[in-house]
Amino acid sequence: MAVLDKQKETKKKRGCKKGTTNNPKGRPPIERTGGIALAALAEQMRVDLDTGETVSAKEAIYRKIILKAVDGDTNAMKIYLERTEGSVKQYIGVTGMVTIIDDIGE
What we know:
Elements: H1 2-14, H2 34-42, E1 46-48, E2 54-56, H3 57-70, H4 74-85
Helix pairs in contact: 3-4
């Protein structure tokens, strides 16, 4: 019994007072690198290709995805098709018996 009483006492000491928090500033924000990539694309960053042609970074990325898709990369195919044709809808078929229990009023 003495061990349980001691545990209860330590829990009471560690907790914060009612109506306050131990972390007043909250969770720190997470830095996301996606914003940097979007900013670079938005600025129309130019990329020199092996062909000597200069295109936007966005177009260079699309070209690379298309080239990989043509070479047989299934992930590149999926990315390209999702961006151009939209995501594929997946339908889930349910077979078997379904029992509905109506016990809300009880």
